[in-house]
Amino acid sequence: MGAPIAARNDGIAGDVAGDSIPAGTQVIELRLAQLRQMFNFMDPSPFLNRDLDPKAEEFIVEWCRELPRDAPLALLVYLERAPGMAEEADALRTAVRNYFEGRSEATRRRLRQLFGRGRMSLLIGIGFLVLAVIASQLMMRALEAGSFAEILNQSLIIGGWVAMWRPLEIFLYDWWPLKADRDRFNRLAAMPVQIRYVPGGNAQSATLDWPFTEAQHAATVRRAVAG
């Protein structure tokens, strides 16, 4: 196990690892007993591509929602154990970045699919509206003027405009929450990540925590394959 990246934090916490946090940055803070609490260990993906724990993700995203949209972000993790592997802060930053980049890409695909449905719905809606107007005009010529003919005429026109409801909803309302989510995930993917080790942590607990356990498992698999 390598030596931790050491820097003192004015006695507020112990050693500091990872990125520096510039002044004026809006800091999202987590306090964890172990880094593994941040990840969903039911996800079989390699640890740098593993999903965040749903509660951790919800906490980070909801905190981000409350901050100004143009504010720079940073993630600060107060870790209640002794420093572990020298690269664990880098691994954490990479895992967080990979996760939110994946969420951004998934949201971008959903946005593209939504616009595709919107365009198709718009073509269908316009076509139906044109047919409804033509049918209304033909009907008014074929039927004698009266309340019944007027009711049928208005029903066709209303039906034509109802067909336009879904594309209008997509292009006026449905797309911008997805765009806001995509922009938010991009900001979270780009944020610096720092770990502050809380003094008094168990020196042995680092060997039971991510990413040490993942590295140990990977090394065991490599030895088994090589052997």
Fold and architecture overview:
- The chain has 227 residues and is an alpha/beta fold.
- It folds into 2 domains: 16-107 and 189-215, no CATH class; 118-180.
- Helices cover 55% and strands 13% of the residues.
- The chain has 5 helices and 4 strands.
- A 4-stranded mixed beta sheet has the order 1-4-3-2.
- Helix 2 runs antiparallel to helix 3 (147-162) and helix 2 (88-142) runs antiparallel to helix 4 (165-190).
Break the fold down into its secondary structure elements and pairings.
Blueprint lengths: L15 E3 L7 E7 L21 H12 L7 E9 L6 H55 L4 H16 L2 H26 L2 E10 L9 H15 L1
Parallel strand pairs: 2-3, 3-4
Antiparallel strand pairs: 1-4
Helix pairs in contact: 2-3, 2-4
Considering the chains and any ligands shown, give keywords for the structure:
227 residues; alpha/beta; 2 domains; rod-shaped; disordered N terminus; disordered C terminus
